[in-house]
Amino acid sequence: xxxxxxxxxxxxxxxxxxxxxxxxxxxxxxxxxxxxxxxxxxxxxxxxxxxxxxxxxxxxxxxxxxxxxxxxxxxxxxxxxxxxxxxxxxxxxxxxxxxxxxxxxxxxxxxxxxxxxxxxxxxxxxxxxxxxxxxxxxxxxxxxxxxxxxxxxxxxxxxxxxxxxxxxxxxxxxxxxxxxxxxxxxxxxxxxxxxxxxxxxxxxxxxxxxxxxxx
Length: 215
Known about the structure:
Tetracycline Repressor, domain 2; 215 residues; mainly alpha; 2 domains; Arc Repressor Mutant, subunit A
């Protein structure tokens, strides 16, 4: 039976620079597998090969499939969110903030990391273990998005909480739905027309929400 001292020593082993780097390499390799070959073809053997470690090393840091899936999915979403936030911070001074936000999100939901996330969601429909992990990751992701919205656009804190959530969710759902919809002809033109309509709708919504908050 493991003692508290054993567990403490094990924790210390995982906190050395080498251990932290190895663990990150394994997570990066797993995410790379999700992106390049998909969830169903991701195996411990493939992860270890890409991370340049032994299968035993993968199992040492992540003893079960659940462990490596949970950590790698959280790693994937954290990496995507960090890149997304950095891009939002680069908004040029002479651009409309809502149009820029829509254009940036449209770019990032077509990012390979996000495409891999959508594939994981699809795969979880018939995989109970994956479904539980994806659900937990979705809850964490939603919380991060709320925080990010207030961080990037603090001037909108005057808007009622329900309006803030609705405006944010509306744009997100519309763009994500568009990204999954097969437009089989004139795709670029039709996508642009839909996004232009979305921009007009979102701008009007936020302007009215701000006016209501200031009244």
